[in-house]
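User: What would this chain look like folded?
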Amino acid sequence: MTECADSHWPSNSSPLGYSWPQISALVPSSILEVVRGSLFIVSWDEAFGDRYEEWSSHMTADVNFYVELALEADGPLVELAVGNGRVAVPVAKATGQRVIGLDTSARMLVQARARAVEAGVELDLRQVDMRDLVLDEPAGLIYCPFRALLHLRTWADRRRTFERVAASLRQDGRFAWNAFAFDHRVAARFGGNHQDEPVPHTVEYSVGDNRIDITLDGGAKSSLWWATKNEWIGLLDVAGLEVDALYSGFSGEPFADDSQEYVFIGRHRAPAAQP
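Assistant: Here's the prediction, encoded as structure tokens.
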């Protein structure tokens, strides 16, 4: 759900050589969290988390899709950008397995813990940037629902994430995610217009930066950076993965030229045939 800056800076330094007080003065507090000595720069305001339950309430179609993939998986289950546990809890309940959930948002992880306790399931929740994914045991399934990979701002951020996913998957493991396909007609219809559902908000498109800014009426803001089909396939390729399936919806609808959603399943690239 969120994105953070590189967490490998020495504890007594900061990016660009600034001191932590200088960084705090330069960067708005709404996008900074100092957690365990690491600086997290997030792509949404933490206040967005207060309305996330309402914001995501309409999104239910993806749950069964990810549950079915989890039931087929052999090995640990990992959700990137676990948020409030909207998908992880049903996955854990259906499989009877603990789900490892990563997120940089402390507020979201608190909600996920509460949801897991209420459902009586076990989530291993970690406040970790998905770009720094490290597992003790290779995963059978790593998944990232609700377009959360779009919170990663740059190709480098996404490449690093895909490489960490590839390094963390079993040889027969799979990586699944979904993201919207940019549609200029949708942008023309909704860009700059106030909307009341699911939470009162305004959407602004910055086409030159491939960015969408969603601002709630209370001021909380979330940003997404869209990508094309070939960019997603290229990310798989550079990470040593390949497309296992590409759909336009969560019921296996074929992907076509007019599709508005990417639903990807990736896997390790098959070894080259020996001559």
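Residues 1-41 have pLDDT under 50 and may be disordered. If you want, I can go into more detail on any region.
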